[in-house]
Amino acid sequence: xxxxxxxxxxxxxGAASTASFADTGNFFVNGNLGTSDYRVSNPASGIxxxxxxxxxxxxxxxxxxxxxxxxxxxxxxxxxxxxxGNAEGKLSNSLGQSYLKQKSRGWLLGGNLNYNINDNWYVSxxxxxxxxxxxxxxxxxxxxGNFRSSSSTTGTGEYVGVGxxxxxxxxxxxxxxxxxxxxxxxxxxxxxxxxxxAMYSVFGEYRFNF
Length: 210
Description:
By secondary structure, this protein is mainly beta. It has 1 helix and 9 strands; from the N terminus they run H-E-E-E-E-E-E-E-E-E.
């Protein structure tokens, strides 16, 4: 077989594969429910005379929709929304107490891959852009009076994640995921610096075609 025939056969096989894959895909909706872990440090650690604590974990959830094509490794696109709860720090000394809180939530756009180990089990990976809205709140209580302030920032970061899933049937699957969200800040203000937020969750997915 000469080079021309080899190329022709390769192109024909590629076209046939593309045509077959074009009809073998499905839409999906999946949801995650779990715990977020803000990778932030204690704002008052080591300051003399100040007692402080930091709660970095909170309930978190995400919802995604998309389309996935079936192949040796299934591949797809996804969009969605994630709520990563909040982190809260408490500081106190002889003059009073103050509370600092950060909330992060926003829109997702990215892609995903599923590798089917067998008919039931698969491993997955995903990644894309995270358009985060971060809200910050300060509350202070002192003998001279109380004080409150709030601010917010919006920025585009990224997210990546991995998971293990189990197909109950062709339409439904369940599993566990680990995701990391990079929440970009857009200011030199210490309250608006970028933050990495981990999320540990269980998920359920429903797949369908119109």
